[in-house]
Amino acid sequence: MYDLIVIGAGPAGSAAAKTAADGGRRVLLVEMKKMPRNKSCSGLLIQKTLRLVSEVFGAEPASEVQCAPTDNHGMIFIDEDGRESRFEQLGLNIWRHSFDHWLAQLAAEAGAEVRDSTAALSCHEQNGIVTVEMSSAGKKYTEQAAAVIVCEGAGSGIKRKLLGCPKEYIHTYQTFNRGRVDLDPHFFYAFLQREFSEHDAWANVKDDNLIFGVATTGPKRLAQFYQAFTDFLTRQYCLQIEETYRDEHWIMPHIRPGCPVDYGCGRVLFAGEAAGFLNPMGEGISSAIESGRAAATVALELLGKQIVPQELLAAYERRVAPTRDYMVRQWRFTSQISTSFKKMM
To answer: By three-state DSSP, how is residue 36 classified?
Structure first.
């Protein structure tokens, strides 16, 4: 019997597990894939994220998780009319697979039990206990806890089973290339022209890898958008691709007008992208860490009492309100830069 089971070893899950372990609780962190595992992400840590990593994990990002150029100088938005908006803020360039693995190791060092290659199949609550059905190495078994935090991303199967959510996502496609392009490698570029993407198209550099991506509300037009985007980069920024050696398909939450969030169901809380937290241009690490910490904090506060699910959800909503407010402000600001995002607000 665990005090807390956390599903998903991304930044949200590791933050929740580390917070619970620091509180002296018996916590289990499970990850479906073998760690370190891939996560399609720009891998840029903004100042807010760096502060949260220090606060929650008590460490600075290790050198082995970083990539070149190490220092990111901010973001450059190019709107529908080709106007450039530059937002400078010193950040850190990291690889997500090694960064997430490092965070999970810090949670383990704090006392959390970490199991990778373990899929959480379902959650069932009865008599004040949540039973989680798991599968590992072809075998199914169950574990129990007083509360569960789901941090398995936008495509969370647990969330769909509990809430009956439709499969509505933003689909992404990005490639890793060798070559050259006339863009400053110290900046993340977001192109908001609708002929390239239904969300945004992006370009950034990691260890001399040129990374280009596009996003749509459905996967069928990804190839079309990607071709239009790379053709544009060839014309405008002298892109020359020598080799495309890797590509990734992924999903992100589809942010709805008003930025609604799903906080949980009963004794099961949702954090990170599983809850619907995502800032513009796919920045989700800061809200993942904040919401994971908030979920674990309220669970710890109520574990010493008899947990009433309504109180748990209400306490979590109050605790994570600043994270949601920040997300709303960021989307509102982006909607002022680009008409493409006005429907978000």
So the answer is: coil
